[in-house]
Specification:
Creatine Kinase, Chain A, domain 2, Four Helix Bundle (Hemerythrin (Met), subunit A), 731 residues, nine-stranded mixed β-sheet, alpha+beta, 3 domains, binds magnesium ion, 50% helix, six-stranded mixed β-sheet, binds adenosine-5'-diphosphate
Length: 731
């Protein structure tokens, strides 16, 4: 075995002896301990400051300077009591990770006397020198300043000795440079539009919040093996590796018992999460070997997004303590499932009603149907945007790969609700008033929608957007993605849809003098028939569906560059501008950043692939080939000619096979490098991304195929990279 592989496996075996166990403690005793949340605020803030912060959290009101000073000083006292020496604004630039710049509370005062300081200004606003964050040309290099500004909607917390204040991140000229800013605006737009529609049903509704419950999938791999795989370390995924004899075909990993070392890791990072108020509840094995999932109780969307960003950070750091690496890439291993991040989404009112949950009465159910059908209509109109917001180089490997939803966006609603919608469509007659009997019949029908629709047998795992009883589950989001992007799009399209719905219903009431219910039925009926193409109950993995989807006129953007174009279409620019979520300029910037990120990812993968092929795989194959050649030469010396031919036949075959594979790999790597040179000269971001996607990436498969064949031929003793069976089945 090659020394690097041997050492990696040896240290892995030693790890098994290091298991320490974890003291059990009741979660309620430490949940939210490190968050400046409800309890801490009540204890540390004056009544006036508490009221102001609550109002800012709930209604988005401004906090004035004097109150900010008070809040800052209380927050500082609380943070120092919780072991913080530093503070940082914590934000989510378009790099995909979180960013922080820590400053000490400590300030050297006059006469060398040190004081701990944290002012209202420190809390509210900072100016990180942020010139190296992606801005898509929004910020000229001479104007490198960006602002971070406090988001009171997400509580501050202490982690690793720093008080972290969740913030938005905008340019000097006010344009969003992060994921949070447009999402907050989308949530605001949804709130306004949804409250107006709720008013048809319940005058007490004054606030609607989007709710999000994410499910995070991930792989774990031993640290030593990770280090022995430069492709994993540099690109997050394996670019080589033959499938092991046993993969996931026995389906014995899903929900199986979790390996001890992994449980220790889970308990450790969950403990960190719980202290930070992240309500993680679920842990289990996933479908693929060494794949796991973590899910919390759902929360208000903005908070849930912050919590997911924080979770990914905590998972990464905790993994190192356990000598693991966590892989959040969408497709770390070929041939077995990749990882997603399901976004369970719904809307809830200040009166405690989940708007996507049917109620006990026909009135409640009409409200449910109104929101439910508007979601379908929104998804039908804006399916292209839902596809764009999940597009990434990593997710391209998942979508349409018969394990994750296809790249075609469709919605699954289950047979019960399909029947309800079909009946509604038939019974309501367009443009005519309903007789009292007809109305009663309709309402009776609606009243029959069962309060609980959580029929698990009716689940469709192949749908990218599935209704699961009291929420929609957007299943196509990638595991490494920031959910804020999906939440921005989903809530914006829903806000827009609800505004249109309201306008149409009002118009029917005003102009056609229909009563409210009648007007609502009329509009819903039309929406049902107009959005029908987006509904699909069958197998999303099947080839027939792709044909059927094309017939229905649904888009199928298999690759990121094509999927992104809609970000700057006329329809979508108008949508985002009208809802005050993103300006034309901000959209252009995002489009450019996403294209550039895509290009860079493929470029790095291509370089790593070429390097590994040239200086790991080919040399190893030639080394083995030389051994065989020496063997053949030796045989020739000791055997007579006739015996020699029989004895050396197998070796000679392997020798020529190796030469063939090596020749193709060498030639393909050379051609790939030339293709890269051509791509690198292209100035236009869109064209360059397409070139990388269709020309450069085209070589990956060929090079990998032949390298993986060599892995099967070459003596296991000298193979240079840890194999799939080692990475996936030992922990
Ligand atoms: P599963 O999908 O594994 O069957 P559940 O249906 O219980 O599990 O929930 C999956 C996720 O959906 C959880 O994270 C849960 O918190 C979330 N969820 C449940 N209700 C809502 C809701 N109203 N809004 C958003 N997320 C929700
Ligand atoms: Mg799920």
């Amino acid at each position: 075995m090659s020394t690097i592989r041997f050492k990696a496996l040896e240290s892995l075996i030693n790890r098994k002896k290091e298991l320490t166990g974890h003291p059990a403690e009741k979660i309620s005793t430490y949940f939210g301990k490190n968050v400046f949340g409800e309890n801490a605020m009540r204890e540390y803030l004056s009544k006036e400051a508490y009221a102001a912060v609550k109002d800012a959290m709930e209604n988005g009101s401004q906090i004035d300077r004097a109150v900010a000073e008070q809040v800052a000083s209380s927050m500082k006292a609380w943070a120092i009591n919780h072991g913080a020496t530093h503070f940082t604004h914590w934000f989510q630039p378009l790099t995909g990770t979180t960013a922080e710049k820590h400053d000490a509370f400590f300030e050297p005062g006059p006469d060398g006397v040190a004081i701990e300081n944290f002012s209202g200004t420190n809390l509210i606003q900072q100016e990180p020198d942020a010139s190296s964050f992606p801005s898509g040309g929004i910020r000229n290099t001479f104007e490198a300043r960006g602002y971070t500004a406090w988001d009171p909607g997400s509580p501050a917390f202490v982690i690793r000795g720093s008080l972290c204040i969740p913030t938005i991140f905008v340019s000097y000229t006010g344009e969003a440079l992060d994921y949070k800013t447009p999402m907050l605006k989308a949530l605001h737009a949804l709130d306004k539009a949804a409250v107006e529609v709720c008013q048809y049903f319940d005058k007490n509704v004054s606030k609607v919040q989007a709710t999000l419950g994410w499910e995070q999938e991930y792989f774990l791999i031993d640290e030593a093996l990770y280090h022995a795989r430069p492709d994993l370390a540099l690109t997050g995924r394996t670019l080589f590796g033959h499938s092991p004899a046993k993969g996931q075909q026995l389906e014995d990993h899903y929900f199986g018992s979790i390996p001890e070392r992994v449980v220790e890791y889970m308990r450790d990072f969950e403990h960190e999460c719980l202290k930070l108020g992240i309500p993680v509840r679920t842990r289990h094995n996933e479908v693929a070997p060494n794949q796991f999932e973590c899910a919390p109780m759902f929360e208000e969307a903005n908070l849930a997004v912050d919590h997911n960003q924080l979770l990914m950070d905590i998972m990464n750091k905790t993994a190192r303590r356990h000598r693991f690496r966590v892989l959040l890439h969408e497709k770390p291993f070929a041939g077995i499932n990749g990882s997603g991040k399901h976004n369970n989404w719904s809307m809830s009112t200040n009166t405690g009603k989940n708007l996507l949950s049917p109620g006990k009465t026909p009135k409640n159910n009409l409200q449910f149907l109104t929101f439910f059908i508007n979601v379908l209509k929104a998804v039908h109109t804006h399916a292209d945007l839902l596809r764009a917001c999940i597009a990434s180089a990593g997710n391209d490997h998942r979508l349409g790969a018969h394990e994750a939803p296809p790249a075609v966006i469709s919605a699954f609603i289950g047979s019960q609700l399909s029947e309800v919608l079909d009946a509604l469509e038939k019974k309501v007659k367009a443009g005519t008033k309903m007789s009292p009997d007809e109305k009663t019949e309709l309402k009776l029908g609606i009243g029959k929608i069962p309060q609980i629709l959580l029929d698990n047998t009716d689940r469709n795992r192949t749908s990218p957007f599935a209704f699961t009883g009291n929420k929609f589950e957007f299943r196509a989001v990638g595991s490494s993605a920031n959910c804020a992007y999906a939440m921005t799009v989903l809530n914006t399209i829903m806000a827009q849809q609800l505004k249109e719905f309201k306008a149409e219903v009002d118009q029917l009431m005003d102009k056609k003098h229909l009563d409210k219910d009648e007007a609502i039925f009329q509009v819903l009926r039309r929406y049902i028939s107009e959005s029908k193409a987006i509904r699909f109950e069958g197998n999303g993995y099947s080839a027939e569906w792709l044909k059927e989807a094309a017939k229905r006129g649904l888009n199928n953007f298999a690759k990121t560059p094509e999927a992104l174009d809609v970000l700057v279409s006329k329809k979508n620019i108008q949508l985002f501008e009208e809802n005050n979520v993103l300006s034309h300029r901000e959209l252009e910037a995002r489009y450019e950043i996403q294209l550039e990120t895509y290009t860079k990812k493929i470029q790095i993968e291509s370089r790593v692939l070429g390097d590994l092929a040239a200086n790991h795989i080919i040399p190893t194959a030639l080394k083995y080939q030389n051994q065989l050649i020496r063997n053949v030469q030796g045989l020739k010396e000791i055997l007579d000619e006739k015996t020699f031919y029989t004895a050396a036949q197998a070796q000679v075959e392997i020798i020529t096979d190796i030469s063939e594979h090596v020749t193709i790999i060498k030639k393909s790597v050379d051609e790939m490098i030339e293709a890269r040179k051509v791509a690198n000269k292209i100035d236009d971001h869109r064209k360059q991304a397409a070139e990388y996607c269709h020309k450069v990436q085209a070589f990956f498969q060929v090079i990998r195929y032949h390298a993986d064949k060599l892995e099967l031929l070459v003596d296991d003793e000298i193979w240079c990279l840890p194999k799939y069976r080692e990475m996936l089945f030992i922990n």
